[in-house]
Structure formats: C-alpha cells, structure tokens
Structure to design on (143 residues):
C-alpha cells in the first residue's frame, strides 16, 4: 500500500536542467586513430575505437578530439606498464561521461532506440593477436 495521494496521470517534471544532454544510443562515425600518435598497444587502440564511436562524440569540438588523443597516449603508457597514469586517465574519461554515475552527474542520458532493445548486442570480435585478459595479466604481474 502506498502512502499519500495518487500521482496525477499527466504529471510533468518541471525541474529539467537547462544544460541536460540527451544522446542517441547508436555508434557515431568517429575518427580513425592518427598514425602520428604512435600507439603501440592493443589496449590503447581499443580505447580509441571505443571512445571515437561513443554517443558522447556526436557534438565534440576539435579540442575534445585533441583531449582524446592525449588521453589515448596516456592509456598507451598505462598498457606499457606505467600504472601511475590510471588516476589521470580516470579523471579525464569521467569528464566525458564514462560511467553511469559520471553521466548522471553531467545530466547526460542515452536514448535507447527500439531496435537495440529487440536484439542484444554480441560481444565485439577480438582480434586473435590481442587478447585483453592476457594483456592485463601480463601488465599486472610485471610480465
């Protein structure tokens, strides 16, 4: 049994934030990883591919793409063994809305289109030469 009066059937939220963003769920065209960055690890390449096609990139300016390039270099360093970079990377991706909590803080919502609800996405194919589990195991065990 609920307490209080029954909600109005035509209730509307009136406290919608003026800077709230509603993003399309579909992947964005993104950009190719610039060869000049010299990215050598599979983890950093996956990081670029994930963020370059994320819904957040739909309205990115050139400065945002430059920030992604810098962060990808940091991720490359992380996968090469410099674990001190993890905190800096986390702070940077939080500003883009990396997690559900980050997106809530940024007042960002992602619209799920009906087509994606019908068929769950399958896991992306990993290339045989790059196994994320093995790569992380080596990184964490100093191997």
């Amino acid at each position: 049994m609920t307490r209080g009066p029954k909600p109005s059937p035509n209730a509307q939220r009136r406290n919608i934030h003026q800077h709230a963003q509603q993003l399309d769920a579909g992947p964005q065209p993104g950009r190719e990883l610039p060869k000049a960055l010299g990215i050598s690890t599979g983890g950093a390449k996956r990081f670029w591919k994930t963020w370059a096609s994320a819904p957040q990139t739909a309205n990115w300016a050139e400065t945002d793409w430059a920030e992604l390039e810098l962060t990808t270099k940091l991720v490359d360093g992380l996968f090469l063994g410099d674990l001190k970079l993890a905190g800096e990377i986390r702070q940077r991706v939080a500003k883009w809305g990396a997690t559900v909590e980050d997106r809530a803080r940024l007042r960002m919502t992602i619209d799920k289109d009906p087509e994606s609800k019908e068929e769950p996405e399958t896991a992306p194919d990993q290339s045989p030469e790059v196994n994320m589990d093995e790569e992380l195991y080596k990184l964490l065990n100093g191997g």
User: Anything to note?
Assistant: The two ends are 59 Å apart (CA to CA). The helical segments are 42-52, 62-79, 86-94, 100-105, 114-118, 132-140. The first helix runs from residue 42 to 52. The mean pLDDT is 81.
